[in-house]
Amino acid sequence: MTDKQKSDQQNSRKQGSGKQNPVLSPLEIVERAEAHPAAVPFLWLGSKKTQRNFIYIPLVGMIVFSILGFFYPVSKPAPWDFGFSYTVIGFVGYSFVVLSAWPLFRLLSRPENYYGEDDSVEEGEDA
Amino acid sequence: MLELFASFSPAFILIAAGVLAGFIPTSKSGSFISKVLMVGAPALALVCINVIYYGQTENTYLGGQLSFAGIELTTLRIDSLSIIWGYIFCFAGILNGIYGLHEKCKITDTSALIYTGAGVGAVFAGDLITLFMFWELLALSSVFIVWRGGPKSYPAGMRYLAMHILSGVLLLAGLVIYGRATGSYAFNNIGLDMPGGWLIFLAFGIKAGFPLLHNWIQDSYPRSSVTGTVILSVFTTKLAIYALARGFAGTEILIYIGAVMTVFPVFFAVLENDLRKVLSYSLNNQLGFMVVGIGIGSQLALNGVAAHMVSHILYKSLLFMSMGAVLHRVGTIKASELGGLFRSMPYTAVFCMIGAAAISAVPLFAGFVSKAMIITAVFENGHLVVYAMLLFASAGVLEHSGIKVPYFAFFAHDSGKRVKEAPWNMLTAMGITAFLCIYLAIPGTYGGMQYLYGLLPSEVAGAAKYNPYTDYHVIFQMQLIMAAVFAFALLKRIGFYPPERRAEILDFDWTYRRLGLSLLQWGNAMWSRLGAVIIYALRGMFGNISRRLYQVFSPAGALSYAAPSGIAAVLIAGMLAVTLFVVYFL
To answer: What is the ipTM of this complex?
Structure first.
C-alpha cells in the first residue's frame, strides 16, 4: 500500500467517525445514482460481503429453533418426530430437490427451440 | 332492490360488463369507461353476493331458477361452501382490474370480465347443466387471454383449448349419464360409484391439473401477457377445486393424486429458467395440497381447502404480479438474465418477498394459517406417508417459490439492468394483495385471521377452534424454513447449486407434442406408402383379370376357338355337378 492510499484510507476513516458522508468509490456513486431512491439505503444487500455472510443468519436461526424444539415438543408426534426433526426434513428435503436438478437437467433439457415454438424471444410492454 | 339482485346470478353482471366493454370505442374516454367496468363490475358483483346471502335467514340461498327443456335449472345457489369462492373470485377480479389499468386492450378487458363472470357463475351453479354452461364459457373466454401473449402463444392456446374442450365433453357426457340414472341434475355430492361419476371426475381433474393432465397450466400460463397470466392464475384451477370439494369430498383416491401433485412439480420447478413457468409448477404443487384435503374430506380438511384456496389466490397472484411487473419493465423473465433488480424495483421486490413468505408458510403470513389445517387433517387421519410427502413438498415450495423466484429476479448477481419501478397501478394491486397476505394471518381482535376462519364452510369443531399459532407449530415450521434457507446458502456457497440455464425442459406434454406428433406423421407417411402399394397391387390384379378375360372372351380368345364337342360336353357336365352340389349341400 502506498503512502497516498494510506492517507486516503485514514481520511475516510476520520470522515466516517465524524458522521460525515462516507467517501464513495466511483462505482458506488454510479450505483447510487442509478438506483431507485427507496433502494439506496439497502444497496448493501447486493455486496459480496453480505452475500457471503448471509449464511450465518439461517444457521443461527436453525440452531436456535432446533434447541427450542426440545423444550416445546410436538403434541402429537409422528413416528419419526424428535426435537429437531423438521430441521432434518427441511435440510435433507431441500438439498435433495436442488441436487436432483443436476441429473434431471441432463436427462430432460433440450434446446430452447426443441418444439419449434421459439420461447427465447420475449416482449415486455416496455421493452 | 334485494329481490332484483336475488333473481339472477351476480355472474351476469360481470358477463354483461364484459360484453359492454367489447362495444366501447377505443378512444381515451372509452378506455376510461372500460377500466371503470374492469374494477367496478367485480365490486358490484361482490356487493350483490353479500346482500343476497346476508339478506336472508337460510344457510343456503337458491335463486335464478329457470326451466329449460323440462329441466329445472338453479343458476344461483349461495351456501357456506360457495360463498367463500364467490367472494375471493370477485375480489381477485377487482385486483386484476387494478393491475391491468395501464393496459389498453379491448380483448383482455372483455375476456377478463367474461372469464371472471364464468368463474363466479360456475361456483354458484346449483345444477350440473348450469355448471357445464359456465364451464365452457370459462374455457372459451380464457383462451383469448392466453392468445394475448402474441404469436408464440397461439399453439399453446390451441392446446389449452383442446384440453378444456375435452374437459367440457367429459363433463357433458358424465352429467347426461348421471342425470338419466338418478333423475336429477342437482350439483351435490356425486361420488365415483355413481353412473357417469368417473367422467365428471376426469373433467374436474383436467381443470385441477391432475398429474399427467397438468401440462396445459405450464404450457399456457407463462405464454400469456403480463396481465393475462395474473388473471388466468385465479379462476380455472380454483373452480376445479371447488367442483371437486362439492362433488367428490372424501374420495380416497384424491389423497394420493393430491400427494403426487404436491411432489412432482417441485422437481420441474427447480429446473425451469422461466420464472413464470416456475410459478406455474408451483401452482400445481399448491393445488395438490387442496386436492389432498378434499380427499380427506373431514371438516378440518375442507376448511383447510377453502382457507388455502383464499391464501393461494392471494399469494400466487402477488407472485405472478411481481413477475409480470419485471417482465413489463425488463422485457424478459428468464432467471439466467435477471438479477439485482431490487436496486431498480425495490417495492416490487418487497411485495414479491411477501408473496414468497406467504407461500412458504412463514408464521404471520397467509400460507401458514391455511396449509397447516390440511397437513394437520392428513396427520389426524393417519395417512403418514402422505403426511411425509406433504412435508417434503413444503421444503420444495421453499426452493422454487420461496427462494428461487425472488432471489434470481431481485438479488443473485447484478444483471446490470436498470429499469423503472412498476407502474403505480401494478404497485397498488400488489400492495393490497401483500397487505392481505399478512393481515389474514394475524390472530387476535385486530387481525384478519378471524375473518378468514369465519368464512370457512364448517363452523363446528374445526375452523373456529383451530389455532395454528401453538408454540410447537411455530417452532417446527421455523425449523423447516431455516434449515431449507441454510441448505440454499450452503449449496450456493460450495457451488453445488445448479446455475440457471436456458433450455426446454421435457415434461409429459412431450408425449403429444413430440411423440404423438411423430407417430401421427409416421402414420400419415405409412398410410401414403400403403395407399401407393395398394393402388399398385390393385392395378396389377385388375390388369391381370382383364387380360385373362380378354384372352378367354375376345374374338381371338379361347372360347371363340372351334372346340371338339367332347370338351364342351365335359365342361357342361362339370358345371352341372357344381350346380347340383350347391343346390343339395349348401
So the answer is: 0.85
